Amino acid sequence: MEVIGLIPARYCSKRFEGKVLADILGKPMLQHVWERAKEAIVLDDLIVACDDERVAEVAEGFGAKVVLTAKGHASGTDRICEVVNPLDVRIVVNIQADEPLIQPAMIDLLAQTMLDDKSLCMATMAKRIEDSSQINDPHIVKVVVDRNNFALYFSRAGIPFLAENSEIKSPIYYKHIGIYAYTKDFLFIYKNIPSSRLEKTECLEQLRVLEEGYRIKVVETKYDTIGVDTPQDLEKVIRYLKKAR
User: Fold this and answer.
1) What is the pTM of this model?
2) CATH code, 38
3) What is the extent of the structural domain holding 120?
4) Within the chain, which residues score under 50 in pLDDT?
5) Which residue of 45, 111, 178, 182 has the fewest CB atoms within a 10 Å radius of its CB?
6) What is the 3-state secondary structure (H, E, C) of the chain?
């Protein structure tokens, strides 16, 4: 296989336990993610990787291919590695189970970027921020990139900072969208990189990659998403989907 999609789905989220099974207009959040990911053209397979029988039962009920993993994994990356280890695949796309508004086109664009450039080991996505209230919102992760669209830094702070004497009057800000693609080989390198100082400071796992000296390609998308970290985020998604009907 060339590309597979993995949806790591953990039941015991610290801020919102059981959120992957939270109801959104009659379907669990995980089903919304799976149904959208299933429409992606580039994926050769799609697997839900979960550590709880309740999640596995629900996912199998709506037709997902499920792998039940060990419960002790520290991160979704570790859970993905357990599933991917025996598989013959080149590119792995990590699709977050708390992104119910993910678009199939986003998955295809990210995967195709990796397929087209064999020098890449990891890629992710960003969208230009249009709502200025998001710039200094610590729940919205921002990313700055170099001229070749490789990440320079990810932060919960409003970066780039607009200096008082700056010649730039309207800087461009990008919201990081938490979908990742990696080569299988790099996925296992990533898994074994120790947690870094910057990662622990910002609570952003991807910073360990930059701090270790690896590069992350950032692909711009026109689509926005609402990541669900709290019950309040869930209500935002429900309101959005109701309006979109």
Assistant:
1) 0.94
2) 3.90.550.10
3) 3-244
4) none
5) 45
6) CCEEEEEEECCCCCCCCCHHHCEECCEEHHHHHHHHHHCCCCCCEEEEEECCHHHHHHHHHCCCEEEECCCCCCCHHHHHHHHHCCCCCCEEEECCCCCCCCCHHHHHHHHHHHHHCCCCCEEEEEEECCCHHHCCCCCCCEEEECCCCEEEEEECCCCCCCCCCCCCCCCCCEEEEEEEEEEHHHHHHHHHCCCCHHHHHHCCCCHHHHHCCCCCEEEECCCCCCCCCCHHHHHHHHHHHHHHC
